Amino acid sequence: MELKDKIYKLKGKVQNYAWGGYDFIPSLIGFTNTEHKPCAEYWMGAHPSASSDLMIDNRPVSLNRLILRNHAETITDKVFQQFGELPYLLKILDVKDMLSIQVHPSKAEAIKGFDAEEAAGIPINAPHRNYKDKNHKPEVMVALSEFWLLHGFKQEAALERVLEDVQEFNILLPLYKREGLKALYQFVMEMKQEDIDALLFNLVKRELRRKENNELTKDQPGWWVAKLFEGKDEIKNIDRGIFSIYFFNIVKAEKGEAVFQGAGIPHAYLEGQNVELMANSDNVLRGGLTPKHIDVPELMKHTSFVGITPVRCYQIEYTDCLPQSG
Ligand SMILES: [Zn+2]
Which of 5, 57, 207, 318 is deepest in the core (most CB within 10 A)? Predict the structure, then answer.
């Protein structure tokens, strides 16, 4: 097949994760969501678990398979020799409900983790598999709407203020002052569920009441905690990810602003739409707020326990590629 110097239509894959919205991605790429499924992500790339298709003579051909069969004419020999695949993955995300607290490994750690899980015989699609490939997953996102996310630990003074101001966290302050951030995070991430429920019950109740009384805004952790519990019959089995909502920076990215997440920066998307470019990887170590597999020891191993001040950068022109309203 002669591919060179031709342009083909690329058809991405929609991922129907439960946290996704229903309308943004269908209207962006032009289909009707007749089954009313959540459309969380639209992947454009050649990741083996959801490769895009190239439309050749009106027939879909897997980009992943095409690259493996004919790398010279698709990604070039040079790129293939260095990466062995298309080295990046582009996604559109529509975040309706908060995503999991997560960290991505470095390239070296991803290779180690992948090889160890292969050696242990864990099937690649097993729910408890951490490493789906040998890649790191540095992510750069550009907001397509007002976009909210959790990004890295708060700086020392700000975190200390949280532990002082939120009365339920007061008991954690001596540990933090004595042993630092990692010990604090380890402690809350390893707490027994019944202790978490006992510690956070009143906090959740208070935040729900404050949100109902319009006393909270999205730059406050309580707003997101209340959103998690709104409409629920009872407050129990409280997710340990809630600690992260208070301990991490809450970032608002305006339309067109970019945020970069490197290896080890703990983060979670809260709400909004964005476009994300990353290495061709699905390696995610999760620490809460998800029905998916959570592996706290693995998360702890790869997390950077340093307070940061988030950076948002670039204002770019993007409006031309958004669906027009009306
Ligand atoms: Zn991520």
Answer: 207
Centre of ligand 1 to C-alpha 136, Å, is 11
Dmax of the chain from CA atoms? 68
Q: Alpha helices of the chain — where are they, by DSSP H? A: 24-29, 63-69, 71-74, 76-83, 107-119, 156-165, 173-189, 193-212, 221-229, 241-247, 296-302
**How many domains, the chain?**
1
Q: How confident is the model at residue 323 (pLDDT cuts 50, 70, 90)?
A: low
**How far is ligand 1, taken at its centre, from the CA of residue 106, in Å?**
13
Q: Is residue 228 part of a domain?
A: yes
Give the Å distance between the CA of 282 and the centre of ligand 1. 9
Judge whether 61 lies within some domain: no
Q: What is the pLDDT of residues 63-94, one digit of tens each?
A: 999 999 999 988 999 999 988 889 999 999 99
Range of the domain at 208: 148-321
Confidence of residue 317 (pLDDT cuts 50, 70, 90): low
Q: Which residues are catalytic?
A: 286
Is 37 a domain residue?
no
Query: Is 261 part of a structural domain of the chain?
Result: yes
**Two tokens, residue 265:** 């920066």
- Spacing, Cα 284 to ligand 1 middle (Å): 7
Measured in Å, residue 244 CA sits from the centre of ligand 1 at 15
Q: In one letter, which amino acid is 66?
A: L
